[in-house]
Design brief:
Length: 309
């Protein structure tokens, strides 16, 4: 009986363990290996999305000493920042909000903008039902708003910063049925864009937030829902995604990585890998407007961190 129980418990532990790469050891910092990192709650799926482009990039970097590649997943920004500070990860692909958090924590630097599905910038939309009686952000005092999750730039960071900037304190709710006090806006995490739209449509919450791309996508905001909604506010545009590199990465490796990624959109051999890489259509240089938009994202992150988290 005791042997059987130990076996069951061991099987449970192994099956419950997340599929993250093992933490790197001191001998893993081989200068000939390019390590691509990703914060992930689905490592198996993300590995399949990352590996083809990593292989493509590595095949074009032999002239700067890169001969192989490796993928290292992290559970959250804290863990990824540790990897970046310790030179265990060289290159990270992330949203602009998480990218700015990695920069704050580790000194990682933006390398390129990432265009996905033909869009390199987007913005957030705060909305409510047209018949809710809510016509402005101020009307959300004492009301609830559905957001996606703390890792979302478009459906958490930027709309939360917008509400705070409008002088509206925010408090987390236990569920959609929970209510905030009369001076605050309560927020609850719906986990998916479709849930956000559905919760607002069904009156489970008073308002929601999505990116303009999700707002226009019937898979995430069905037309039957959208026609009954009112837009309350929109944020300014900001980058959809970023490629980041660790501080101290050899300049020759950094510059070659940038050029390979910039050229990839014109190379037919990279087409499949680019598509697998979260629907990437091309990589773009960071121009002055993009850098200004990233500064706004950085300010939003600081505001949310100081006033909510």
């Amino acid at each position: 009986m005791r042997i059987w129980l130990v076996g069951v418990l061991l099987g449970f532990v192994l099956s419950a363990a997340p599929l993250y790469a093992a933490p790197p050891s001191p001998g893993d910092d081989d200068p000939h290996v390019l390590v691509l990192g990703r914060i992930s709650d689905d490592p198996k799926s993300h590995y399949a999305q990352l590996k083809p482009l990593l292989d493509y990039v590595v095949a074009h970097m032999a002239d700067v000493g890169i001969t192989s590649g490796r993928i290292l997943m992290a559970r959250d920004a804290r863990q990824m920042s540790s990897y970046l500070r310790r030179s265990r990860v060289d290159w990270v692909t992330e949203t602009s909000g998480t990218g700015m958090e990695l920069q704050r924590r580790s000194g990682a630097q933006p390398l390129l903008l990432t265009e996905r599905g033909g869009a390199s910038i987007y913005h957030s939309i705060l909305f409510t039902r047209a018949d809710s009686g809510i016509t402005s952000l101020v009307d959300l005092r004492g009301k609830s708003v559905a957001l996606q999750g703390v890792g979302s730039t478009s459906a958490y960071l930027m709309p939360a910063s917008t509400l705070l900037g409008a002088g509206l304190p925010m408090e987390i709710l236990l569920s959609p049925q929970d209510r905030p006090d009369k001076t605050s806006v309560g927020y609850v995490f719906a986990r998916s864009e479709l849930n956000i739209a559905a919760w607002v449509d069904k009156g489970m919450v008073d308002a929601g937030a999505l990116s303009n791309l999700d707002w226009a996508d019937p898979r995430r905001m069905p037309e039957a829902f959208r026609k009954n909604m009112r837009v309350l506010a929109q944020t300014g545009d900001y980058p959809r995604a970023l490629e980041m590199v660790r501080p101290g990465l050899d300049s020759a490796v950094r510059d070659r990585l940038r050029q390979v990624l910039l050229d990839a959109a014109q190379d037919p051999q990279a087409a499949t890998a680019m598509k697998r890489f979260f629907g990437t259509t091309r990589f773009l240089r960071l121009d002055a407007p993009a850098l200004q938009a990233l500064e706004r994202v950085r300010e939003a992150s600081a505001r949310v961190r100081e006033q909510i988290e």
